Amino acid sequence: MSSATCLDKLNEDRSTLLKRYRDGVEHALARVDLSSSLDFTLLQAYILYLTCARLDSHGPAVKAHLSIAINMAYRMNLHRDGTTQKISLFETETRRHLWWQLVTLDTRTAEDHNTTPYILEPSFTTQFPCLIVDAGLPSPITSNATTSSTFFQLLHFELISFTRRIIFSDTFNQANDYHSLSPIQKHKAINDFRQSLETRYFSHCGSINPLEFITAATVQLFLVKMKLAVCKPGHNFRLICVEVLQRALALREHEPGQKWLWLVQRDMEWGMLELLLNDLCAEGVNEGREEAWRVVEQAYGYWRGDETGRGTGKWAVIEKLRARALTIRGYESEIDVPNGLELVPDNYGPVPVEELTEDTATGELPGDGTVCEWSMEAFEHYFQGLGAGDGMSNVL
């Protein structure tokens, strides 16, 4: 919830509410012995708390707490799949969900700190959760299954598992028995993974549904971001970065999807913002510069107004890159901005929703047609523009 929404709905400032509930959770956790506990519900609460705290610079050092949560999970044998234990189907699925939430937190935290995850693949056998429909039983992939609450979680768990194989060091790959891939091989692997998701999941999304849409859109955004990072700058790199960041910003306008988007929005937008700012730091590349700066300042202005993220290490990287890009562009204390571009002043706050509409193409959000028009067909030309993976002369 934004500060304005908190004031409107709860009659209190967002920062005040965050501090109150953060303090309450921390006091409750201080009363239990996390180092020896086998309480499943406690671990659920702890992982949820750390997942939220990762998005709050005023919260605890998540990386320091992560080892405690991982040790708890191993003590409770969450790293062993329930099919190898004498437990019910329901308990098996619940344990799978919690384990992969922990793997997700571990991976995203490693990205935040430019390190590698703690959890190693050979140490666990826990499978992905099944898609669960209202009857509470695993379901084949049908339109009902893709509208269930587990659809978003399952696809992002698969995305995390794939991400671990692509973005970390060769040393990490060796420790996990992953193949060390060249940029061209990574490029092809991303294409193959995307096609697998299309065949297994997205092709079954047959009607407009907020959960299906936000799942397909966010997974596609992460995959394009990953492919851009693998490709490195090429002749169409900036153009695609701009368009993809605009699409990420446009998701803010999809009100029905907000209950899921908050969990991944920052990672999507900051990742694309970092890629685009890195590109703007390159000297002598002027094509598309003004349009790139417009979308950069739009995204930067929004997050500059969110105090929960400003103190994080990732935000410090973005601030440093932006300062460097501005210096390279020739701006110092007073800026003569061409073509009507206005850079974000120091006292800038979040961009009002109504100001986002024109620049971020919200008209392309779900309307009539299939759920994946925005996410699959619209993203297709990004993947074509970045090559098929069998050769990257067009991007390298």
Automatic annotation (TrEMBL):
<dbReference type="GO" id="GO:0008270">
    <property type="term" value="F:zinc ion binding"/>
</dbReference>
<dbReference type="GO" id="GO:0003677">
    <property type="term" value="F:DNA binding"/>
</dbReference>
<protein>
    <recommendedName>
        <fullName>Xylanolytic transcriptional activator regulatory domain-containing protein</fullName>
    </recommendedName>
</protein>
<dbReference type="Pfam" id="PF04082">
    <property type="entry name" value="Fungal_trans"/>
</dbReference>
<dbReference type="InterPro" id="IPR007219">
    <property type="entry name" value="XnlR_reg_dom"/>
</dbReference>
<keyword id="KW-0805">Transcription regulation</keyword>
<feature type="domain" description="Xylanolytic transcriptional activator regulatory">
    <location>
        <begin position="62"/>
        <end position="135"/>
    </location>
</feature>
<dbReference type="GO" id="GO:0006351">
    <property type="term" value="P:DNA-templated transcription"/>
</dbReference>
<keyword id="KW-0804">Transcription</keyword>
<dbReference type="GO" id="GO:0005634">
    <property type="term" value="C:nucleus"/>
</dbReference>
<keyword id="KW-0539">Nucleus</keyword>
<dbReference type="InterPro" id="IPR050613">
    <property type="entry name" value="Sec_Metabolite_Reg"/>
</dbReference>
